[in-house]
Fold each of these.
Amino acid sequence: MLNDNRSDIDIELKERLESEFASLSPEVINEFMHDLETAVQQHRRHMAAKAAALISELPQSKRHQLLQKLFKIREAKS
């Protein structure tokens, strides 16, 4: 149910953005995309810092296990 709801929200957001972008100048769209990319990078840095703080609280064996899992997931998606 949650995935269906998120899918509906994603579709609605996509449709709204398509509608909005149709009336915007390329300069405004480029500025928005730049701001969006900056926000995503900041969010990723924040999440990485949060993960580092949390993982440092774990025993070495659990820390190693979770990092290995992360690297396997990353490799699988590459």
Amino acid sequence: MVKEQIVIIFNENKKRYGYRRITKELHNNDICVNHKTVRKLMKQLGLVCQVRAKRKYSSYKGEVGEVAPNLLERHFKTNQPNRKWVTDVTEFKVNDQKLYLSPILDLFNGEVVSYNLSRHPNFKQITDMLEGAFQKLPNKVDNLILHSDQGWQYQMKSYQNLLKAKGITQSMSRKATCLDNAVAENFFGLLKTELFYLEKFDSIDQLEKAIVDYIDYYNNRRIKLKLNGLSPVQYRIQTVGAA
């Protein structure tokens, strides 16, 4: 019974869950078993969570505009949604074609608030992402920080004016200090480990659809141990309601 459920959970999540997350999912399904037993059974079953190395894309091109101070200062926790957001851009390559993902994540629960996929890392990608995020906010917000690295997009006056018009305070990592934006970096690593490196993609179109599906899975179904075994959306709804 337990072995069958472990295999089901492992396969349903496309080999993305290790023994700790599978243990939590078993508990969510009212199957009481400790993590040591799950780890032992997974070893017997030959179930291994897949991991691959990651390559980082950088949009830094020097100081091409105004650099904002690092207001976030690696304080990655908040007890309310829409108080601390982080953003970044990452690159994928399939058959000599490239795809760029630009998301915004809420540090309250790690939820992807908005994102944009583009064949080119241009400024329209950033504004489209912001437009999607702004639709989920009131006309004017207070005490919301949006943190990024020092990529050229975030130094543009047009970007900074969009944030100011919405009442959002801009924050930037220090130069060449990726740990200042660790949550965004970790999300990219997770997505590539659990999706991009696990599957073979024949085209950019195929990859784009897979990323859309993965983000829906990540937001709504992928449980997090630090969110009490809930997905980001489940945690938000349980904690503060659907708004």
Amino acid sequence: MHDIYTAIIQTGFNKSKRILNLGEEVILLKEPENNYDSEAISCVVPSVGKIGYVINNFRTLPIGCFSAGRIYDMFKVGIFAETKFIVNNISILKLNLESRNILNDIYKSSFSNLF
């Protein structure tokens, strides 16, 4: 299987402050209870908490990246991803497909302290 990339947009932080570093691993978690988007996937940095969301709008999604809707059914609860590129407040991540089985076995509440 080929590499799958997605992109997140940083929210709730000073846009000039870099939260992620290249090579840093993050956790992408489904948010089925999200009132604005039924396919919302949040991005969590364990040392910081929730920093943004996977982009689900084709107008703002970088070319070559999968939207939240395209990756939503690839995992049950969450998946690890590695930061590959950063441009302003958008970060491009490479999904770690092997991790989806690890996180599928962990109940989402295990991550509740990260929000």
Amino acid sequence: MVKEATKSLVDADWLESQLGADDLLVFDTTVYMSRTAEGQIDVQSGADRWAQGHIPTSGHLDLVGELSDTNSELWFTAPQPDDLVAALMARGIGDDTRVVLYDSQLHMWATRAWWLMRSVGFTNVAILDGGLHGWSAQGRPVDDEPEPDRAPVSLTVGQGMGGFTTKDVVKLAVSNDSVCVLNALSADNHAGLDMESGSGYGRPGHIPGAANVPAQSLVDTESHRYRPLDELREQFAAAGALDGRVITYCGGGIAATSDAFVLHLLGQNEVAVYDGSLREWIDAGEPLET
């Protein structure tokens, strides 16, 4: 059994004790998504809400504009590695920096930024368990101060410790029993039952042969903290995701990173995220099953 990489997950006690350290950067990564009356997805950066109240010394890291390929037709496509490194350096993230990420929801925005950073070899990054919800619920301080100025830094592109994969690779994986394709969306989405609610992606169902571990099921909805690792291990083992290669997907490569993050905590290191996920798969006319 690979030792669990729990240093990638930190609690509020630890973070509060470290706030103000010269080498520590804290970022809110929240994005807000909603459905319009026409069924389209509306995406808004969480920067405005960050400005109203955030963990002291933190900044807002924009997954909409800063850490996505804005030339892609698909939301949140990962930038090219050099572009991603340049964006991280512009926010003060360098070789000697420690980073803690949080969001105001159920971690999936923080894990998306975490996965992006790991994909270019930056591994000194952790998720705040409980996010802003848990921090505030414990009566810890929040403020509306601007982000502190950051000194210029250098960040070296390294060997990715987890990365992204493509539609063509997923198509091959569908017929390969040694690869677990894992859907991080809801059980209703997986079963093709979400179309009437307007929360589907244009066609019902999941990638053929995929297992299902919903990202929302990984987190206690009251505390916003991840469930105990023993429980999570059982859940992923039942899906066949602890042996061999795993490809996680969702609607657009966001919730999939929460599954990938927990697999990392459980010592599963052969994980890739299908960046295009269902939006690309469905747009390309690829098959689904229910």
